Amino acid sequence: MDLLPTDLVRFCIQDAGLNKPISTTLMHVSEVTVEHVLSRLMKVLQSNDHIDLSSGFTVDVITIRRPVGAGRMKGNNVEDACLKKKSILKIPEDDEGLCCAKAILYALAHLDQDKTAIVTLRDKHRPALMNRARILHEESGVPPGPCTYTEVAQFERHLNIQIGVVVAENMNE
C-alpha cells in the first residue's frame, strides 16, 4: 500500500487482557514513529492492563487517504476572490468611520431576507445606509470611527446578536 506523507494513520492494539483497545491519535504518515506508538502503549500498560505476548495480540492499522489537489487555483489573491464572490459584500468606505455599522446593517438585512432594505442600503445615491449607520452608532453608544473588538461587543449587546469578525489580511487565522 503506497501512502503519501499527507495521508493519516491510526494504530489500534487489541488483546484479551485489555479493558478496551489501545489507540493512537490520527497522525500524518510523515509523523509516525515507533517511539510514538510504543509510548502510547506503555502509557496504557502502566495502569494495570497487560498484554500476554505468548498468546499474541492484534494490531489494526487504519489509514485515511488525503490526496493533495493539483488543480488550477480559483483565486490567487484574497481580495480578488472576495470581489468575485456574490456571498461577500463590499462595504463602501466613508470619511466618518461607519464601516462596521454599515456591515452590521447589511448583514441584518440579509439575515432577515429583507429585499427592499437590501436594495435601499446598496443604492449609493441614497443616504439610507449612512443615516442608519449613524443612528446605530448613537443608540449603541459607540463613537464614530474605526471599531475594535470592544466596539463590536457594544454593537452585539445593543442588538442582542453575535458577530463573527473575519480578517482577510490574516487569512482568518
Give the CA-based shape.
elongated
**What structural category characterises the helix and strand content?**
alpha+beta
What letter string, H or E per element, gives the SSE order? EEEHEHHHHH
Contiguous uncertain segments of 5+ residues? none
Determine the strand fraction and express it as a percent band.
5-15%
Percent helix: 25-40%
Question: What's the average pLDDT?
Answer: 81
The number of strands is 4
Major sheet size, sense and barrel closure: 4 strands, antiparallel
Gyration radius, rounded: 28 Å
**Distance between the amino and carboxyl termini:** 35 Å
Q: Number of helical segments?
A: 6
Count of domains: 2
Overall description:
Strand 1 (8-14) and strand 2 form a beta hairpin. This protein starts with 7 loop residues before the first strand and ends in a 14-residue tail after the last helix. The protein has helices at residues 34-45, 78-84, 99-111, 115-122, 128-140, 149-159; strands spanning 8-14, 22-23, 27-28, 58-64. The chain has 173 residues and is an alpha+beta fold. Helix content is 37%, strand content 10%. The chain has 2 domains: 8-64; 78-159, no CATH class.
Q: Which key features would you list for this structure?
A:
single chain, 173 residues, alpha+beta, four-stranded antiparallel β-sheet, 6 helices, 4 strands
